[in-house]
Fold these 2 entries.
Entry 1:
Amino acid sequence: MTIKLIAIGKTDNNNLQTLIADYQKRLGHYVRFEFEIIPDLKKVKHLSESQQKDKEGELILSKTQKSDVLILLDENGKQMDSVAFANYLQKHLNSGIKNLIFVIGGPYGFSEAVYQRANGKLGLSKMTFSHQMVRLFFIEQLYRGFTILKNEPYHHR
């Protein structure tokens, strides 16, 4: 199985980029992981929030196939602790799917078309984080989840 993270817009903070790259490398020991950035939309001043979400949604959906499991990282998604998330990952690993895709939306969230296509929603916290920091937090949680599944000492219970 391949786990993929799709995010809108680049990370311009070098410190975050370094940390993200570190966890990406660590994840490679457990699973095939891909991180794909969809560039920020250009000329958005004339677009409404809804139009911007629709355009981003088209780009997100163009990166998926019907057989992919698509999970949105959404503030209203199901929240779980790290052990529950590890078990969530294990269920997907056991299901035989080819691609498990997680998506971080743009500044206004997701279009209705993306919500309709999604197979689920996960919330990382009730707090609001910058889109750039969410990338790091999520990739770290993926790594933590795999160390939990392998009974490695990274996560302390």
Entry 2:
Amino acid sequence: MKISLLAIGKTDDKNLIQLIEDYQARLKHYIKFNLDIIPDIKKIKNLSVAQQKEKEGELILKKIQPTDFLILLDEKGKEFRSVDFADFLQKKMNSGIKQLVFAIGGPYGFSDNVYAKAKGKISLSKMTFSHQMIRLFMIEQLYRSATILKNEPYHHE
């Protein structure tokens, strides 16, 4: 199974970029992983919140294949402990899914069309984090899950 992380907009912070690249390099030893950055929408000041969500939603849905299993990172999603998230990933791997796609929406969330296409929602916390930080947190959790599944010493219970 391949895992992809879709995110809207680039990361400007060099420290975050370095950490994201570090965890991506670590993750490559365990799974096929792809970070797919969707460029920011141009002339956003002329758009309402609903229009912005709709345009971002169109860009997200263009990246989704019919066989992809789409999970949204959403504040109203299910929360997992790391061990439980690793178990969730293992079940998805065992189910024969070709590609598991996690999506990080824009600042206002997802359009109704994206919610309709999604097969689930996950929340990393009840707190709000920047979209750039969520990328790092999600990739680190994927790495942590891989080490848990391999019984390696990265995660401590």
